[in-house]
Amino acid sequence: MTSSTTSPDPSTSSPTGPATAPSGGWGELFSRDHLATVLTLAGGVALYAMNLYFTAALMPSIVADIGGARYYAWVATGFLMAAVIASMLVSGALARLGAARAYVTGFVVFGAGAVINAVSPSMELLVAGRVVQGLGGGLLAGLGYAVIRGALPDRLWARAAGLVSAMWGVGTLVGPALGGLFAELGAWRWAYALLTAAALVSAALAVRALPGRPAGKGAPVAVPLASLALLTLAAAAFGLSSSVPRGWATGTAIAAGLALLAGFLAVERRATTTVLPSLAYRPGNGLRWVYLTVAALCAGVMAETFIPLFGQELGGLGPFTAGLLGAALSVGWVVAQLVSVGFATDRARRTAVRTGPVLLTAGLIGYGLLQSDAPSAVLMAVWAVVLFVAGAGIGLAFPHLSVAAMRSGADESEGSKAAAALNTTQLIAYAVASALAGTLVTLGGDSLLTSARLMILGIAAVTALGTVTAVLTSRRGTGE
Q1: What is the CATH number of the domain that holds 405?
Q2: How far apart are CA 246 and CA 284, in angstroms?
């Protein structure tokens, strides 16, 4: 199961331009030849995404049991920081271990973190377990994109990329609902036991589905240590902004995070070993706009982390129902994405990329403005509708951005690195947006209604930037 053709020269096509081979159907993707591979690729991403929102739905119950409310935002931020670090190791893991052993490593580390969470007597240890989970999860999420190009023929890339990225939506759909159910039953520790079992089963499937040895004998892949250090420090600074006292300390932490991100970009432009492909820094190349649009979409996803909390505290919903409300965005993501991957014309794909951030931003603004201390059942139903619209914006654009990254390189190695960096971009956006969301909630003070409006509208301001980068991404000639 190897790629049958190489991708087109990126200098002669725009990122969302037509494919070089006819698009394969769902039947071929799920055929006996590819089914086990597809289940492994999709399963790793689904497990990662489900876990992120699984924990969001469990957090009110966890805090009530073991305390540590001041570390609420760090439970997500620590996980995402570790995932960013691990995502940078994807190319090296594939080169040294091969696809199967890289996947097994990711699943085992993820499962070990879930075990720590299940037995945690304090929030500090839970955060540590989340960091271990993030290391395994970041590897799994990156492998889901990086292995597509080498494991499947190019006519299946669009549908495979759509399926893998749809798993973010499926995971965020199942995660809040399932987490809410365990919270309702008062069994949050058993929730992590379930994740451990799922990780072990997935590891066994990976051994059977994927090659056990590296595909080639290329030179070892160097780790961009300087970039890694700057990104980690930036994520830590943004995370601290939600924990320090409001005022100058919050502003200082945010400013430090922005300065470290700027330093990261400066180092990347000059380094020989980089996190993002060198194409992304080449003048006139459209890959940078692909990554920036993906980052804007993913910032919108992180608003979902606090929706179960708002549903319970503002709407008076139970944990399970609040989890379902949080899943409304994910339902829109999945539904729209399954439709979007069938777009066959260049014009349709470009329209999807441009429309996606607009719908996401509009949906978030609507949800933020409609927040209320005592919402009626009708108003909460409207919340679900506007969150669905927001998610649909993500689903429309995401598969075409994924394929654009995969096709940006002239050979399999470059394409795989660009695809793996797509996941790194997602995780960086998640880490920064998660910390930003936590800070905005904190700035609301004792009023949860104010916190909800600040957080949702603040995230919408970030996603609005994606409406600009999406136009640059889909504009003909951006890859020239």
Answers
A1: 1.20.1250.20
A2: 41
The whole domain housing 463 covers 18-474
Average pLDDT rounded to a whole number, residues 61-71: 82
Whether 480 is covered by a domain: the verdict is no
Q: What is the pLDDT of residue 169?
A: 67
Tell me which of 40 and 69 has the higher pLDDT. Answer: 40
Supply 355's token pair.
């429309």
Q: d(Cα 213, Cα 96) in Å, to the nearest integer? A: 8
Within-domain flag for 462: yes
Q: How many domains would you assign to the chain?
A: 1
Across the range 166-172, mean pLDDT stands at 73
Distance of CA 78 to the CA centre of its chain: 15
Residue 151 to residues 206, 342, 426, Cα–Cα distance (Å) = 13, 21, 22
Cβ neighbours of 381 (radius 10 Å):
12
DSSP state of 376: -
pLDDT in tens, 284-298: 777 888 889 999 998
Picking from 449, 461, 460, the residue whose alpha carbon sits closest to that of residue 370 is 449
What pLDDT sits at residue 13? 42
Q: Are the C-beta atoms of residues 388 and 328 closer than 8 Å to each other?
A: yes
Which tokens belong to 163?
């399926």
Q: Is residue 10 part of a domain?
A: no
